[in-house]
């Protein structure tokens, strides 16, 4: 290992600009002549729009334009799309209601987009928005999923008269029922996976610009996948053809899934730029972000696990209602289906699984992928019911898990996935050692003497990352392929630019991708630049989500580097007057085998460009290669997280005392960055378990729409984490990488809740387990114990 | 419009501003010092922290006119003559940042914590004192380490930051 190659904890190349205040986020960009957009949003959860009168607003000082859904329709601008087709059990396609970027005739959630005001200043735009007169006919809203599917419930989209988007299933129902029929024990659980708001610290922002001379549009936007944004805006929404639309996603301040999607505001800004003849800038404020960013999770689930007399798992059946909000967001349909049910086997050998999912419309913000996307929901089901089963059978939760682990690989689950490799017992063993499991009884007694309740909770998770083999996802309904591209441009002096379709919004690609280049080309890391986030520079790419940048994006880079080295060897052969077969490349030098003749990488690059030593007919001048990499399988990172906590039964306050994470991410490029991803994921998972919850009241008002109402994890809510690793290299990609971005958020919630219920004498608690929830549970547990 | 004069990062600036202009808007829009970020508008997240007369202030809820005659330091003014401040170095060395959006406010708050609490900070103190700064990426683990190391490096006579 070199100091900057694979496996080195290289300090990040991108950090200098961030620690000195020179990062360049979308809101930091000012375009000449830019005007400011402000969106008038619906104050009602459900209402018909009888009329919109914008005449007074248009006359306000500083107003450049006021536009509505009618203007969009007149220009032939299409609605927002959902790019993954899901079919119901009966074969019928999902019921996707129209989703105009600005409402036409009806609003369906608080925050829905009614009109946009564009003015010289944001303040002028806000003032003018107050002068817009909207005549609403309010309708009864439906916020709760169970209420939404009752006969006679208000209908949100005419295409779905029962508010059901799809009624989907996966697995072998008959085999599952047969296994349950012969089970000696059945564990059952009812779960709510609480609704969350992703909350990257940088809110969404957009600047749309139109150049009348070239008839070209530019959109600066906070996107995790600028090429996908361009594709959707061009091919589906119809703003402009792809070669006339440039999308730039500069520094982006976190995404966690919420910046994958193509939203109304970005669409309107780029369209309106031509309409008003000015660059149009919009930056979300935090409350707008709460109202209009796609939310995450929000499931109600009943699950059952069938076991034989020894506690061996026989089958699992799961029935879930998934809240999809008022419209289908870009990838919302696949999150509670194909990103959820295929993970229900967890790390366990379960012969039969059957899962049913109803996707449901409600008068709430759209719900889509949030860190983990379906996999945290699946892991919560698996790890909670496994814990319940172990306790009901009186078995040690670690031993019970170990007994049921998958041990032979490859392993075909009954729900699509073929696990390629792993060593689940190794992660469990290491985690048990790191948390000092053998002394947990002693620590519990010590806590009890101090009047506290101590609990320990396990989470043995698996996730499917490296999203994804294009043909496989295509067969499941995806509208796009999920390969990745990379281009390596070697300059005549031997410096290198890598253009990648992956997008970094905190992941540190400028460092990790450069480490791979250093490792392979043997050049110093400061001679490598990673370029991403601009559709005019990078030819195409699918972006960053689903922990795919390492496994898929870097695999594409690896392929492109192979081609660069192969071409450079040919150049070196001419320059060194040797045959191709005799050229060896090692540590940045090309040499002729068995001689002392050699050239440095930079010298060969120069020879490639001056082309003096070979004929351009025999070998093309230049040194630039590209590659597209389409994975052959998902990757399957796994691990064991253990949470140990203490409850004060008098106040309900929970203090996490220890956290151990042992993850198998395969080969790791930069352990410092990978550990950072684990830390951040755990914090979001602990947030879900203890603090965070988006709550709509019965009228459809979001009552948690600021940081004073929605409890974000802060430094004093969390402990320091103990992070360990085991390694089984991924066999399906050239680098052996599995992916690490979502693991913490997937693993953490059941670890916390299992620890809480352990402390509370198995009394169930819902998420977020706030002090009030925990205090009530502690009271119930105490009363029950007294009665027994 | 109101005239406001203040010293920002050592330079005197005078501008005519709408009286409702916030200090965060003034530094970002009037002075184009965009390192100061706005993350929540409600004084919760701390991405907008700057120093006003040596004390940490949330600039998203401070009127620019209230800083008339004050001396303001933003993240851009922390490095002196191209040499990074020890707290900036510590954040880089300990991977105390990922997306970088909360980072300027974190660093400005961290320097203020050291100014108030001294150079020997324990984990509990750091976590309590960071209550007013939200990070969504790091889980705070490495920020805590960075602040502790940065505090030590800010002590008179300290020369470098040792990584763990």
How many domains comprise the coordinates of chain A? 4
The topology string of helices and strands of chain B comes to EEHEEEHHHH
Largest sheet of chain B: 5 strands, mixed
CATH topology of the largest domain in chain A: Aldehyde Oxidoreductase, domain 4
Q: How far apart are the termini of chain A? A: 61 Å
**Count of the separate structural domains of chain B:** 2
Could you say what the CATH topology of the largest domain in chain B is called?
A: Ubiquitin-like (UB roll)
Low-pLDDT residue spans of chain B: none
Give the mean pLDDT of chain B: 95
The CATH class of the largest domain in chain A: Alpha Beta
| Average residue pLDDT of chain A | 97
Major beta-sheet overview of chain A: 7 strands, mixed
CATH class of the largest domain in chain B: Alpha Beta
CATH architecture of the largest domain in chain B: Roll
Approximately how much helix is present in the residues of chain A? 25-40%
CATH superfamily of the largest domain in chain A: Aldehyde oxidase/xanthine dehydrogenase, molybdopterin binding domain
Q: CATH homologous superfamily of the largest domain in chain B, by name? A: Beta-grasp domain
Assess the beta-strand content of chain A as a share of residues: 15-25%
Largest interface: A-B, 57 and 55 residues
